[in-house]
Amino acid sequence: MTALVAASRSGYFTCFCGPTPCGGALSSVYVVAGCLIALAFALARLFEDVPLQKKSNRKMSCCYVCRSICLSGCILSMLPSLIEKTMTTHTIRTLESGDYEYVSSVVDEWWGGRPVRALVHRIFFDHLNATSYAIGPSDAVQAFLIGFVSQSKPNIAYIHFVGVTPAARADGLARMLYEHFFNVVGARGCTEVHSITSVVNTASIAFHRKLGFTLLPGSGEIDGLPVALNYAGEGQHRVRFHKSL
Ligand SMILES: CC(C)(COP(=O)(O)OP(=O)(O)OC[C@H]1O[C@@H](n2cnc3c(N)ncnc32)[C@H](O)[C@@H]1OP(=O)(O)O)[C@@H](O)C(=O)NCCC(=O)NCCS
């Protein structure tokens, strides 16, 4: 039994109670429970208290009972994580004034140590948040997007900032926010979305390309990318993105 427990803990379980060993990659306390029950069946069978073998069907052996019990154990052991996954629904809500403190306190870290805090200004949270969104509570925002419809060119929507907590990356949150933004501004009559990023932000460039953005021609080229030189001040070159809705 100790060996079975160890085997089950190591993630691999093989049942030897039948005529031939059966097994699989199983790991769970349910497997141990299954083994205990299976052992009870085997002992009962040994003393012929439980007629597990049907005379008409010789293949019906204790091993099959073990397999069924272990399989059920495995399915049961997966249920909590499946339920947790299903319950973790990401709800998009409008960015609020109350989000400012938390978001501004984490952005430098989210941007890998780059000092971007000054660019996430309070006015976006207080006065320009009609088309800006967040996921998660104000004291633990998981992702946010700051975007607006251009006042001078109402057919253009602009995304100023998007950030996702490192722990929740590659989970589709930024895509969710972008697609929500596209729907909202599209319904408001926008036909294009623009955005910019630093030349060094290769993750952002890859992300935007994945979402169907193209790089606008620039006044220069850095690392093979078209860039608008000095776009955000002396030496502050930017890659500019465009997407048609
Ligand atoms: C860029 C960033 C917003 C992406 O957020 P995310 O939630 O991890 O992205 P998603 O999971 O929604 O990814 C959407 C698509 O982009 C791709 N993508 C995202 N990050 C990528 C990366 N670093 N490299 C390559 N592709 C990437 C994903 O593979 C995914 O493609 P798919 O849907 O075809 O599978 C996030 O990495 C971040 O917050 N970075 C720091 C802040 C920043 O640089 N913001 C952008 C400039 S304002």
TrEMBL record:
Top-level taxon of origin: Bacteria
One function term, GO molecular function aspect: acyltransferase activity, transferring groups other than amino-acyl groups
Gene3D superfamilies: 3.40.630.30
SUPFAM superfamilies assigned to the protein according to its UniProt record, in alphabetical order: Acyl-CoA N-acyltransferases (Nat) (SSF55729)
Entry keyword annotation includes Membrane: yes
TM annotation in the entry: 25-44, 64-83
Organism name: Collimonas arenae
Domain (N-acetyltransferase) ranges: 90-232
Name of the protein this chain belongs to: N-acetyltransferase domain-containing protein
